[in-house]
Amino acid sequence: MKQNAPLKLFLEKDRIEAGCDEAGRGCLAGPVFAAAVILPPFFKNEILNDSKQLSAKQRYALRPIIEKQSLSWAVGIVDNKEIDKINILNASFLAMHRAIKKLKIKPEHLLIDGNHFNPYKGIAHTCIIKGDGKFLSIAAASVLAKTYRDDFMISLHLKYPGYHWDKNKGYPTKAHREAINRLGSCPFHRMSFNLLGDKLKPNIENK
Questions:
Q1: Number of structural domains the chain divides into
Q2: If 50 and its partner were Cys, which of 32, 34, 107, 132 is the partner (CB 3.0–4.6 Å)?
Q3: What are the E-state strand segments in 39-149?
Q4: The domain that contains 120 carries what CATH number?
Q5: What is the DSSP secondary-structure string of 157-186?
């Protein structure tokens, strides 16, 4: 897929920067995943972009390249129970914090996809709107977060096939909401979310 403009490698090349992004914020079920990636100064990849602009095949082809060529990478997870307690925005930031904490190299600066972030102690950060389409490290983080979360939801599908998580990955598709209305919720649904939307009548209970 062609890009309108090449993604930048660094905001400031003389410091160790980690790109951070999350996946699953808008889902009705499952955890939110986040990744943090530190790329080397020689890194190049013409395909890497915002994960939403890539096909599943491209994302999974990129994952081992990112893991092999990055100086350090990590994934953080916040489950649906925690999401219900602290809300999805704070959960997204917490997932990023957990990923950053697991990095083998401590970054000197964080590039955060979005317009807000809960500061990580001892490390400065810059929020970048649509940063996953502007910086390679954030794009790399978006690919890791997306693919690892997809793998998790596909594994859950084996236990809860009625919700079609192998296809919708927990997002609020019509089929997913109709399944919730028919089957009720399960232990992996986010009960603080509007599971049925505004068109279906409630029939939700934990099973």
A1: 1
A2: 132
A3: 72-78, 109-113, 124-128
A4: 3.30.420.10
A5: HTT-GGG-HHHHTT---HHHHHHHHHH-B-
What is the distance between the terminal CA atoms of the chain, rounded to a whole angstrom?
43
pTM over 0.90: yes
Element at 20 (helix H, strand E): strand 17-23
Please indicate, yes or no, if residue 2 is contained in any of the structural domains. no
| 149's tokens | 């979360």
Per-residue pLDDT for the chain (207 aa), expressed as one digit of tens each? 444 678 999 998 899 999 999 999 999 999 999 999 999 999 999 999 999 999 999 999 999 999 999 999 999 999 999 999 999 999 999 999 999 999 999 999 999 999 999 999 999 999 999 999 999 999 999 999 999 999 999 999 999 999 999 999 999 999 999 999 999 999 999 999 999 987 655 444 433
Please give the helix or strand (H or E) that residue 35 lies within, else none: strand 32-38
Instruction: Note whether residue 204 is domain-resident.
Output: no
Q: Give a yes or no: residue 127 inside a domain.
A: yes
- CA-to-CA distance for 154 and 142, rounded, in angstroms? 18
Q: Find tokens 């809860």 and name the residue.
A: 160
- Give the structural domain span for 141: 17-156
Residue 89 lies in a domain: yes
* Collapsed DSSP state (helix, strand, coil) of residue 96: helix
DSSP state of 119: P
